[in-house]
Specification:
By secondary structure, this protein is mainly α. The chain is about 75% helix and about 0% strand.
């Protein structure tokens, strides 16, 4: 095998490795671009490091995510075994949890980018901070709606709830608006 073929093979391996590193995370931060550059140059050594994630690097669930999932679980258990089960199905609960998780990961990425953004880029920092604040506020509002929904479904189970459909519609609308923003 010629030296040119070895160099070409090494370059192709590095290029594929860099593309894999870039394709993995949902947001491309400066840290990811640096990791991709290292993978391009030193892929046999760097690729295992780039794809290993320690417990500290895995995104922890935000307290608001836990509150929302707890409220949705309470809502589902409140209507379990009743005719009201069609109002909030398991598929609905999974969709809500998935969307909340996706939005929380986006918020994590924005906050990471905000920490890594150079101080000189004040305008960019202000826009990132505004986006992070808006997403955090919206997740808090979704949490309140989920809590209200759980309470309303508990009341509906006992024949006293009348605001279930509007609450569920508002919860879905908020999540849809968040996911499209």
């Amino acid at each position: 095998m010629s030296t040119a073929a070895l160099i070409f093979g090494y370059f192709v391996g590095g290029l594929v490795s860099a593309l894999l590193v870039l394709a993995r995370p949902p947001a491309r931060t400066l840290r990811i671009w640096r990791s991709a550059a290292l993978a391009l140059l030193l892929w046999p050594l760097w690729l295992p490091v780039a794809f290993s994630t320690s417990e500290a690097e895995r995104p922890a669930r935000r307290p608001v995510e836990l509150r929302i999932s707890s409220a949705v679980a309470r809502a589902r258990s409140a209507i379990a075994g009743t005719a009201l089960e069609v109002i909030l199905t398991d598929a609905d609960a999974r969709a809500i949890a998935g969307e909340v998780s996706r939005i929380a990961r986006r918020l994590d990425a924005v906050e990471r980018e905000l920490r890594e953004c150079p101080l000189a880029a004040e305008r960019a920092r202000a826009r990132l901070a505004e986006l992070a604040e808006g997403d955090a506020r919206a997740l808090d509002e979704v949490s309140e709606l989920a809590e209200l929904l759980a309470t309303e479904l508990t009341l509906a189970r006992h024949g006293h709830g009348d605001g279930v459909e509007p609450l569920l519609a508002e919860l879905r609308a908020r999540l849809e608006a968040l996911s499209s923003s």
